[in-house]
């Protein structure tokens, strides 16, 4: 039961059928797109599970994509989730609503959050040697976030809370203020998955279908350049080649360009009928050209998705990233980058598409030293 720590307030919780209550969250600014997708799942599962238990009038507000550190285009506009995902599909799993919808429902031009909980970690997660789920309200404090760039959002009360535990434990904080209708959690990345890897987890993951325009563009590309019109393509191998900060500071995890070529060559030798390689990457053009040159000299045909500036303007860096992910997800064999959430999301997509996991959980290894195997997070249907 959710409210074990404060049963009294739970019993008093006011739920009127016609009044929707809203849960908002934001995420630590430096976190990237693909970790944020995982944080969404934790909240969506929290709300959907509560709905099953009769807490039916809570909705989750989808935090607009704003000012993402890695994205160069459109940083200062609030991008709705529908630009990247199929909203109806998300709503088939959990009651979620876009921020612009929250504004358009209300007659007011401003939005006031009743209580904003600023979550922070306990200094020692394993106090006395045990990991215990717990929270502690520290008192009023100030919010150092940006409300997704909206100047017209404020909070009546801001409380700092040390928090350690699963998302569902946040209901205990919610129940401290039974009359509140708008509650926000800052640092939504701190609470943990309730049901990592379970059927519920995968049901939620499956509901994260991409925006159909992005799917269309990716499929057209696959058909035209990679000669495949089915979901599982035998015609190409795909690689997520994470560079930038990974290449600069994770030399023990990622290979050099020549090391990358060697590993792709080795994988392709096992696929005698496959000569095409699709590379998804955040590498610079010069790195990519070098990789292409080396692979071409071995007789392979290299492809990467080069969006026009109009396309970048229309879909943003996030949209282009998704197109790369879709193309990677349909390949006969996939090789990803160690500990990249961008890679993890492709692997999940391939699990959903039904690929054998041996074609999916492969990684690029460093040129020298240990190369740990990737954990296999296989689908539960
Ligand atoms: C270690 C952590 O790794 C995290 O990155 P990691 O999990 O790879 O995954 P993301 O956080 O999604 O990657 C950051 C961004 O880099 C771009 N990007 C990376 N790979 C590709 C690609 O193959 N194609 C395209 N189009 N874009 C790519 C994309 O904009 C993505 O949102 C970082 O966000 C954290 O800041 C931290 O550095």
Automatic annotation (TrEMBL):
Top-level taxon in the UniProt lineage: Eukaryota
CC per GO annotation: endoplasmic reticulum
Enzyme class of the recorded protein, top EC level: transferase
UniProt GO MF annotations: peptide-O-fucosyltransferase activity
Pathway(s) this gene product operates in, as recorded in its UniProt entry: Protein modification; protein glycosylation
Subcellular location: Endoplasmic reticulum
Record field: catalytic activity: L-threonyl-[protein] + GDP-beta-L-fucose = 3-O-(alpha-L-fucosyl)-L-threonyl-[protein] + GDP + H(+); L-seryl-[protein] + GDP-beta-L-fucose = 3-O-(alpha-L-fucosyl)-L-seryl-[protein] + GDP + H(+)
Keywords per UniProt: Carbohydrate metabolism, Endoplasmic reticulum, Fucose metabolism, Signal, Transferase
GO biological process, one term: fucose metabolic process
Matching Pfam families: O-FucT
Gene3D superfamilies reported for this sequence: 3.40.50.11340, 3.40.50.11350
Principal location listed in the UniProt entry: endoplasmic reticulum
Its EC number(s): 2.4.1.221
Family: Belongs to the glycosyltransferase 68 family.
Stated name of the protein: GDP-fucose protein O-fucosyltransferase 2
Source species of the chain: Helicoverpa armigera
Encoding gene, per UniProt annotation: HaOG212272
